[in-house]
Design goal:
The chain is built from eight helices and seven strands; from the N terminus they run βαβαβαβαβαβαααβ. It is α/β, with parallel strands linked by helices. Pfam families: adh_short_C2.
């Protein structure tokens, strides 16, 4: 299997400065990719650049993925910098606040929806035409096991990650005949800032971390690198017939 070499490929990653984004950028850059990384205005890229390396093949920009002008701009910048976009990891997302439905802050609902759904859809709106023109490309959208079930207190996040499955399936049907594949990944609990924030809202970081880990058949959280490995596979030529699917990386959490 030679397809997972990324030599000569350009990868666009949103939410790149987070744990999964950084791990994916490093893995793909190590395999030869050019990386164009996007994250929110005010991002400090120092740790990202140190972790990813390959400075000559890595570039960064800042964008608010809820603003159409910003989305259009980061796609133009990626195309200008590297000449093409072969793989798009549509990864930007936020968890929002932990709030049960009677206490739901509608501003929280709108904020999560705008980043996690609107931001993903607008990324597709501007990346897909470049891939269509090239007659090839692979998109990996970031969903979650939260897109496959429920969880008290996280209605906006759950709603948004369910939506990504529908977006992925629809985009795959539109794109397949044009040589472009669209899939999504559904990670379970992954070590990093986002899960720490969710655990905090549910009653305490360490207490909830331990309780959640105990409920996972593999008895642990996943690592960002384990998600990155799945993203790298789906973006590669080895996944040439994978289209319109969702793929869990969750330690058998959703197998029951």
């Amino acid at each position: 299997m030679t397809g997972q070499s990324y030599a000569g490929k350009t990868v666009l990653i949103t939410g790149a400065n987070g744990a999964i984004g950084t791990a994916t950028a490093k893995m793909m850059a190590d395999r030869g990719a050019e990386i164009f990384a996007v994250d929110i205005p005010g991002t400090d890229w120092k740790a990202f650049r140190q972790a990813v390396g390959h400075g000559d093949r890595v570039d960064t920009t800042e964008a608010d993925v809820t603003r159409e002008t910003d989305v259009k701009d980061y796609v133009i910048k990626a195309k200008t910098r590297f000449g093409k976009i072969d793989v798009f990891f549509n990864n930007a997302g936020i968890e929002g606040k932990y709030q049960e439905l009677p206490d739901l802050d509608i501003e929280n609902l709108e904020s999560v929806f705008n980043v996690n759904v609107k931001g993903v859809v607008m990324g597709l709106k501007y990346v897909l035409p470049l891939m269509y023109a090239a007659g090839k490309g692979a998109v990996v959208n970031a969903s979650s096991v939260a897109g496959l079930g429920g969880s008290p207190g996280l209605t906006p996040y759950i709603m948004s990650k369910h939506a990504i499955l529908g977006v992925t399936r629809t985009a795959a049907l539109e794109a397949a005949a044009k040589g472009v594949r669209v899939n999504c990944v559904n990670p379970g609990p992954i070590d990093g800032r986002m899960m720490d924030s969710i655990n905090d809202g549910q009653g305490g970081q360490q207490k909830m971390h331990d309780a959640t880990a105990a409920a996972i058949p593999m008895q642990r959280f996943g690592t960002p690198e384990e998600v990155a490995g799945l993203v790298a596979f789906l973006g590669s030529d080895d996944a040439g017939y994978c289209n319109g699917g969702f793929y869990t990386v969750d330690g058998a959490m959703t197998a029951a």
